[in-house]
Amino acid sequence: MPDNSTLVFLGDSLTQNGSWQEWFGDYEVHNLGVGGDTTDDVKARLDDVIALNPGTVVLLIGTNDLGKRRSVEHVVQNIETILATLRNELPDAEILLESVIPRSAEYADEIRDINRHIWQFASSVRTHYLDLWPALSVDDSRLNPEYTTDEVHLTPTGYEAWLSELEPALERVYGLPPKSRPIRLPELRQTS
């Protein structure tokens, strides 16, 4: 565990609906997810994050921008601004940027484009990157239907799949040895 155990989850309803305190009970958890938020909204409320002086910020944002038909460039530029602001204002914090997760197939190309750009930018502001696409997509084009009921929000099984990636990513961020916690696997379903 880091010296500063304040852990902020920042984003939209995907973040808001997570049981972060339950899942990361060893930390002082702050859920700053707000339903409907876009990258513009998160950018506008960064002072709330900075005021908490967190040791770690976990950011997932961008899917609502696509729903509002904002361009890839708009989303990428805002995420880059968010990351640069956080790095400038919280120079000692660990920042973990999560990829925009899959939605319906119509958004796949835009999401891949956004994720490629933010992955390339992340290291320039000492930010860790977690690609959630492989764990949450099916047919490499859309959100796995077992993880959602509306192609945007996650079911409990979807959150389990997300956590199966997030927990080891935070271990890497903190330099902890692998498997310092029980392995969490998404529920395996039998098909007949």
UniProtKB/TrEMBL annotation:
Gene3D superfamilies: SGNH hydrolase. Residues 9-161 form the SGNH hydrolase-type esterase domain. Pfam families: Lipase_GDSL_2. InterPro entries: Ester_Hydrolysis_Enzymes, SGNH_hydro, SGNH_hydro_sf. It comes from the Bacteria. GO terms for molecular function: phosphatidylcholine lysophospholipase activity. PANTHER family: SGNH HYDROLASE-TYPE ESTERASE DOMAIN-CONTAINING PROTEIN, THIOESTERASE 1/PROTEASE 1/LYSOPHOSPHOLIPASE L1. This is SGNH hydrolase-type esterase domain-containing protein.
